[in-house]
Amino acid sequence: MRSRVILFGLFVVFCSMVGKADQIPLGDPIIKTGGRGTPAFHPVVPPPVPAAIITSSFTITSPSGNSPATSACVLMQSGLTTSSKSCFFENDISNNDVPFTITKLIFDAPTINPSTVTCGEFMGSPFGDCKVAPLDGGTQVTFFDGSIPFHTDFTLDFEGFPMNFSFGTKAAVVGVTPEPGTFELLLIAGLAAAFAWIRMRTKA
């Protein structure tokens, strides 16, 4: 009799655990940002070569829906296609020799229910926060509170998306301007040149 009671109790506990597991969503989509793809302390494996991002609007495709875990990231921009095995990228956006800093990364995920999507940051992520919002029957994920300076690399991670899923991606950018000290030097040099020109004209 006692063994039956114990078995019944175990059955009730098992059923309650299954019920709770059903309430926990498994495999929901998630996007994360991070730092370098290979730890700097690894003496044998050379660091991966990052895929260069050269435009502020581009597309990233995950062939398996889980990149880089089970497939590379595919970067498409300006008619060029580049594959990055470790989803490792570098900000190389510039215009007329003016380098740009990325201040936000915005991913559009069409047809994906925003209530199922989460976002986060790995150690070394260039961003401190992210948010998920609905967008035209899909989801928009925005990473902010940070920046990716020109010629700086970073990683991306996509989990739980459908196979061959493509993200329309936008980078909010700002042009890099000279530091305040540089402005002061330019001002002083300009004033000195003007003063020298006035003196030359006076002597003449």
Architecture overview:
The relative contact order is 0.21. Helix content is 23%, strand content 40%. Residues 5-26 have low confidence and may be disordered. The protein is α+β, with helices and mostly antiparallel strands and 204 residues long. The protein has helices spanning 2-23, 180-203, and strands at 30-34, 51-53, 57-62, 73-77, 80-84, 88-91, 94-95, 98-109, 118-121, 127-135, 138-146, 153-159, 165-175. The protein has one domain (25-176).
How helical, in percent, are the residues? Answer: 10-25%
Shape: globular
- Average residue pLDDT: 81
Helices and strands: which structural class?
A: alpha+beta
End-to-end separation: 120 Å
Order of helices and strands: HEEEEEEEEEEEEEH
**Count of all domains:** 1
In terms of quaternary structure, the protein is single chain
The major pleated sheet works out as: 8 strands, antiparallel
Cα Rg = 26 Å
Strand fraction: 35-45%
Q: Helical stretch count?
A: 2
Low-confidence stretches: 5-26
Secondary structure: number of strands: 13
Which terms summarize this structure?
204 residues, alpha+beta, eight-stranded antiparallel sheet, five-stranded mixed sheet, 2 helices, 23% helix, globular
Write the layout of secondary structure elements.
Layout: H1 2-23, E1 30-34, E2 51-53, E3 57-62, E4 73-77, E5 80-84, E6 88-91, E7 94-95, E8 98-109, E9 118-121, E10 127-135, E11 138-146, E12 153-159, E13 165-175, H2 180-203
Parallel strand pairs: 1-9, 2-6
Antiparallel strand pairs: 1-12, 3-4, 3-13, 4-5, 6-12, 7-8, 8-11, 8-13, 10-11
